[in-house]
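Fold this sequence, please.
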Amino acid sequence: MSEREWVIGVIGGSGLYAIDALENAQSIRVDSPWGEASDELVLGEIAGKRFVFLPRHGRGHRIPPSDLNFRANIDALKRAGCTDLLSISAVGSLREDLPPGKFVIVDQFIDRTFARQKSFFGAGLVAHVSMADPVCPALSDRAEAAANAAGADVHRGATYLAMEGPQFSSRAESELYRQWGCDVIGMTAMPEAKLAREAELPYALIAMVTDYDCWRSGEEHVEVHNVLEQMHANSATAAQTIVEFAKALPDERPANPIDTVLDHSLLTDLAIADRTLTAKLDAVGKRVFAARG
């Protein structure tokens, strides 16, 4: 695949519900066969680069984690022409050296969610994408550099435990996740990262630590008001990180191995594939469907 224009999709998590730096901004509703996305997409430019913003929980934070329509969100961003996804997410810390206020560039996940639709594919059209390396290293490099340029205290490399929620962990769960080697904990990165991979969209995650999870001896248990205070403190730095990310992008986007991941993941012969499912995959599978005739 040749070089092309960048179109960066930004999925804003808790505390990041808008990007004021977007120029020529316009809001659009993108229809998806997978249902309603969390909100309208906001299209605009930063430093001459095209961006598409989606508040993950909707403006006003009205959608809880388990009710997010992850498939519609990723599908809508794909339909809007996004080439890459930058996810911003609030997390709790499972490590002493990742205090509130820290920005963490995540590189691995453990998925403990259980009540969510996790794939665009299924009976009648089967695909198995690799999630061995679930984020794009090149995009993560750019995210790390941008966060540093924005003045964030950045840690590179972490395992994110994705829990179902909406309740916070018990102390026993929190201690278990620490024993597993997890570094941060949140409720929204899965199946978001899996679906981004199926949609052939390179994905990077900037996790903003809002609190220590309840494992910490002598620490008060997590309360929403504490999380909100740290979220607001993080939000300005997160917004500036996006600006720095845009400023550092080269004019042309180089080809990425994730752009063609379905070439090696789609198993079903398209001649016998389920037509209803194929139709719903007209955005996610458009490239590979065309390539296979």
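The CA atoms of residues 176 and 270 lie 44 Å apart. The mean pLDDT is 94.
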